[in-house]
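User: structure tokens for this one?
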Amino acid sequence: MKSRRSIYLLAGALALGAGAGGWWAEARRAIVLDGLAGQNESPAGPEELRQRILSTRQRAAGWRGGTAALAELSRLAHANGFPREARRAYAALERLEPKEPRWSHRHAVLLAEAGESEAALARWERVRELAPDFLPAQVRLGDLRFKTNSAERAAEVYRRVLQRAPDQPHAALGLARIDLEAGRWAEARTRLEQIVAQTDYALGYDLIVTVYEHFGETARAADVRARGKASGAYREIADPWLEELMEGCYDSYRLTLEGGWASRRGESARARQWLERAVALAPGEVEPRFQLASVLAATGDETGARREWERCTEIAPEFADAWAQGAAARQRAGDGPAAMRMVAAGLRACPESPGLWLMRARHLREAGNAAEAVRAYETAIRFRTNEADAFLELATTLFRMERVEEGLKRLEQGLSAEPEHPPTLALLAFHAITSGNEAAARAWMVRVERQPRVARDQAERLRAAFRERFGRTGP
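Assistant:
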């Protein structure tokens, strides 16, 4: 009797389990279908992307599709500029897999971009609880709290990040911004000087300019501003969970952008992968190919780099940088005549390119044709008046031609174009020292000493020359 009762109980339990399992399967399917609701029936984009989206959607809607297919669909939508569809899918995935932090993180990114700050903050707080070691989410949480005027709560987040990773520059930058807003200029300066030193001015250079100007250090501010011209926009923290989306990205612009950031972070293999994908998707666009060439050159593939730069000149003959980089690559390979021919061809296509005129001037000077080099330098300056390099090289060419006063005038013009340009300051100081003009030499040495970008060995040689010439130390 007892054994029969056990059999009945077991059968009942199995039946209940089957019923519960069936109910949960139905519930999961309902959530998946809710995540698919409102999807564009005819998505835009390349045919391969369209077919991939439609196929994935079909699998998700089927009985055997479910979560995995919906996750793939969310990645495709997010990576290719369909935020509404991605957000709908992420909302469903958060219900299906509430302990997977990736869904909340990616959803928060899209919500923040749409200006839905409170919803984004709530999700990043959830990510912090689920994955406390994933710092990109915490940095974004701090940034958004600061942006929404919650400076104290933002500071708590940044300090928590720095407890886990003391050298994390984005969190330190967040605290520096809070210091500036509160008027704590000295504290902000200390943080920012550490950040720009750590990141080689990739982060914080715009704020340190403001700080130096506040303290009246205009020369240092001008120097940093000159660095900023080549440093580009603010770099967000590297984010592996967003980078995972790139496998399904069919947007050549986004792949090019992400490839550029990866290259700047030193992730050459990843940069090459994304840029090659961008080139394959948009073979007639010059920007991804140009960036790919730069990555190839940086990793030692000079042949591949030359091929891509030359292809750029075919696609966009008016793109002067491709001619310049291709010519420089030929020069590095030891083929000076080919480099000269490429510069000449580039100038025929881009007759107002200051960079190409500068390269032509250098080739002419190296070939011993100083008079023609001077004319080329003058042309380069006419087309670009705000950089000191052409003025400096023209001045040194004039010095060799014993046209010293003209050369000095050009150096002074170069400083007007680019104040406190380190090589120009050093050359003017050296000329004053060798000319025996102690007052001028002392004045130039003061500016040299204040310029942190003058190389230490060069500054020391100038000090030694000053002592030897005048019998005493400089300023």
